[in-house]
Amino acid sequence: MINYLYQEQNWQSQLSDLITDPVELLNTLQLPESLLRGANLATASFKLRVPRAFVAKMHIGNPDDPLLLQVLPHHLELEEHPEFVTDPLGEEHANQQPGVLHKYKSRFLLTLTGACAVHCRYCFRRHFPYQDNLPKQQDWLNIKQYIESQPDINEVILSGGDPLTLSNRKLAEWIERLSSIKQLKFLRIHSRVPIVIPNRVDEQLISILKNSRLRIIVVIHSNHAAELDDFTCGKLNQLVEQKIVVLNQAVLLKGVNDSAQTLIDLSYRLFDAGVMPYYLHVLDKVKGAQHFDLDSSDIEQIYKDVLANLPGYLVPKLVREIAGENNKTPLFGTTNF
Ligand SMILES: *Cc1c(COP(=O)(O)O)cnc(C)c1O
Ligand code: SF4
Fold this sequence. Notes:
The chain has helices at residues 5-8, 11-15, 22-28, 39-42, 52-55, 66-71, 140-148, 168-179, 193-196, 203-210, 230-241, 260-272, 296-309, and strands at residues 95-97, 100-101, 107-111, 155-159, 186-191, 215-221, 245-252, 276-282, 317-320, 329-330. Strands 1-2-3-4-5-6-7-8-9-10 form a 10-stranded mixed β-sheet. It is an alpha/beta fold. 30% of the residues lie in helices and 15% in strands. The longest helix is centred in the C-terminal third of the chain and has 14 residues, at 296-309. α12 packs across α13. The protein folds into 2 domains: 4-78, no CATH class; 91-330, Aldolase class I (TIM Barrel, Alpha-Beta Barrel), CATH 3.20.20. It is built from 13 helices and 10 strands. The structure holds pyridoxal-5'-phosphate and iron/sulfur cluster. Residues 116, 118-120, 123, 125, 160, 162, 192, 221 line the site of iron/sulfur cluster.
């Protein structure tokens, strides 16, 4: 589509000019409004939000476009299902400090913003009460004290919301603060923004990351090779060239990437950009996402085919997050020892 438009426009104006109306999204893709089928009701609890640069990677006229399916509200989101709940990971009660979610030993999530550039319909945080829980300037000392009281922590993960919706100035301030804590070695940034607004990877961001004392790991979130056009791959590669480790996590989603070939293509495409596959997450059972769910026998077959067709270094770890576990739980192929 008119992709080149978004290669020139700065990321801030792209972020303030998102598509939020399902009808506009369908019109842009020349799809009939009949596809809405009650989708507007689904936006009442979780709005449509999608950057135009991401829409530009979708195919005109294809109602089953794998990128579109991730963002278009669906009437099935409104169905009740006993297994699919608002807080499948029990995170609401796991907060140690405002913004801090510490479940694993050496690392914890620090949420600096509740905002995302894109709303992914399957997201397990769609019901999370962020607004009550964001750290303010004055919380910094408490966060620092918390880290210093937990000598096992050597890594902070800036996570979602999406930390790359913050300005470079804000981000630099937080990175500076964190790097003053001696026990920290690593700083991880979990973000989908480089995929949906590739221009977010600007010179200032690269310079902030490459000049930090901390070892920086950027974990992007891409579910399909069609999200990784040449322009996006070029931006990711700029990070890699600065010796920033860039990894990808994907979520296995019915209708989006539930075939071995799709996942194989994704891994090779990531590798083109210098990005290593990290995790393939099984869907969290979050209310409103049941239409993305797959049978475990299908998951097993897909993953076995992925294993058989890719070199080991391009196979993402298939994991599920189980409340109360010490780490993400690996699935299949790990139970035989
Ligand atoms: C996923 C997650 C992490 C990061 O886990 P890694 O296996 O190190 O990628 C850390 N904290 C929480 C709460 C998480 O959900
Ligand atoms: S936290 Fe990640 S998966 Fe969830 S809506 Fe934001 S960008 Fe999408």
